[in-house]
Recover the amino acids of this structure.
């Protein structure tokens, strides 16, 4: 694939190296002469030193002939402008890295449509999503977010005392817009029909709005009443910590945020309505003891400083915190912590650049549909775009003859995301997500033909 990347910071360099190793043809744009020269010596790609928001620079990079343009600098405004210009010049698909504030405002204003950008993402929010997965399911069953984070997938192992065992799925009283995508029974994984039942020991895969699904999954795991609220402490109220607190507050978590900066504390207190903001230094053992962090279920270090993150996790663990998680920005630190996490007693280390790389890889494809994730047993969650004209375009979900082994689990229409029901319409340009069994992938592709 012919790809142009603008912005060769930590994320851009990491992605460029990965794409070159995969055999893609790259043109790289960087305004810093030092960075441009350094990367030109290390990566087999064309490197242009210039401003990506300049038409002359974009023309030199031949974006009109590119299949994908990625604006990955740390400046949201510059990225969106560059991606918009690249789209106007003829690139097929554009992706822009943005500040999390931009994504938070998408429900008010459609930045993607306004600038002609196909996908917006923030590394802060992607890292927060990865951390939140461990909070919602620390013991290791799969938790994933799809449809730009608005729909969640959770896997739950069904206990023997569950009252709904043996009942057909069509008789179960699920919350609105929650879907069972698959059931794994022993070595067999299948996409259930309305007549199938749930049995003790089944591993079921659920899709729904995150807060609703978290409540349901909690009840299913313990066979009745929901689990109590988890006590979560976040170190750092910057973009990473703020994004994580926003995701967790109002759910099954009681959230506290440690932040040193008094001005930032005031802003956090005004914005986070269900989070306790503590003006203090979590690197101080005495402050951790004073706030009884040892009794917390989770301690999450989310500052920009890797050393502070790791050390405060170790201190919290020594005080008795059950699970400690940390952000790791530096590549060498990430490798060490991931390799020695058990010895360090850190439950998980999340790298923002790795989170971004995983998210962007699904767009590095010429296919109309992309695999978002693969489940054990071979089933896949597949993302696809409804064509301008085709077998499903403009039809209600109930009017489509879905082949066996396919279940629709999410739909994006503009900035709105939902688990589609029978009366929802599949409009041209909508993005849909389906759980597809291994033997139904071709049938799903045929559905999406023009």
């Amino acid at each position: 694939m012919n790809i142009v990347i603008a912005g060769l910071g930590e994320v851009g360099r990491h992605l460029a190296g990965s794409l070159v190793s995969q055999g893609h043809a790259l043109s790289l744009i960087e305004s810093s002469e030092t960075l441009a020269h350094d990367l030109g010596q290390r990566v087999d790609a064309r490197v242009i030193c210039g401003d990506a928001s300049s038409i002359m620079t974009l023309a030199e990079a031949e974006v009109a002939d590119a299949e994908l343009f990625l604006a990955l600098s740390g400046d949201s405004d510059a990225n969106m402008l560059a991606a918009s210009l690249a789209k106007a010049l003829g690139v097929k698909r554009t992706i822009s890295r943005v500040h999390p504030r931009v994504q938070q405002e998408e429900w008010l204003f459609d930045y993607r449509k306004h600038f002609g950008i196909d996908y917006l993402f923030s590394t802060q929010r992607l890292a927060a999503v990865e951390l939140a997965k461990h909070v919602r399911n620390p013991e290791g069953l799969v938790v994933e977010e799809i449809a730009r984070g608005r729909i969640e997938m959770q896997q739950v192992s069904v206990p023997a005392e569950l009252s709904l065992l043996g009942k057909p799925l069509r008789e179960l009283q699920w919350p609105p817009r929650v879907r069972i995508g698959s059931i794994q029974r022993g070595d067999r994984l299948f996409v259930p029909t309305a007549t199938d039942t749930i049995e003790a020991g089944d591993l079921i895969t659920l899709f729904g709005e995150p807060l609703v699904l978290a409540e349901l999954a909690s009840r299913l795991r313990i066979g009745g009443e929901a689990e109590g609220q988890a006590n979560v402490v976040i170190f750092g109220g910057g973009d990473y910590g703020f994004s994580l607190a926003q995701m967790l507050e109002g759910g099954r978590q009681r959230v506290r945020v440690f932040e040193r900066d008094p001005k930032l504390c005031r802003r956090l207190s005004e914005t986070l309505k269900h989070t306790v903001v503590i003006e203090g230094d979590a690197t101080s053992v005495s402050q951790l003891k004073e706030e009884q962090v040892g009794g917390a279920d989770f301690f999450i270090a989310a500052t920009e400083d890797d050393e502070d993150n790791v050390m405060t996790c170790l201190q919290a663990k020594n005080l008795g915190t059950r699970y400690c998680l940390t952000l790791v920005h530096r590549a060498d630190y990430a490798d060490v912590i991931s390799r020695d996490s058990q010895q360090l007693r850190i439950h998980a280390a999340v790298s923002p650049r790795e989170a971004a790389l995983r998210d962007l890889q699904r767009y590095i494809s010429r296919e109309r549909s992309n695999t978002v994730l693969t489940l054990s047993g071979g089933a896949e969650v597949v993302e696809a775009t409804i064509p301008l004209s085709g077998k499903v375009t403009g039809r209600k979900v109930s009017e489509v003859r879905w082949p066996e082994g396919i279940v629709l689990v999410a739909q994006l229409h503009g900035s709105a995301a939902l688990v589609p029901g029978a009366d929802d319409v599949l409009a041209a340009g909508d993005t849909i997500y389906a759980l597809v069994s291994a033997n139904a992938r071709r049938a799903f592709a045929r559905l999406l033909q023009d």
Q: What stands out?
A: The CA atoms of residues 153 and 207 lie 5 Å apart. The chain has four domains: 2-121, 126-222, 230-357, 364-447. The radius of gyration is 23 Å. The first strand starts at residue 2 and ends at 6.
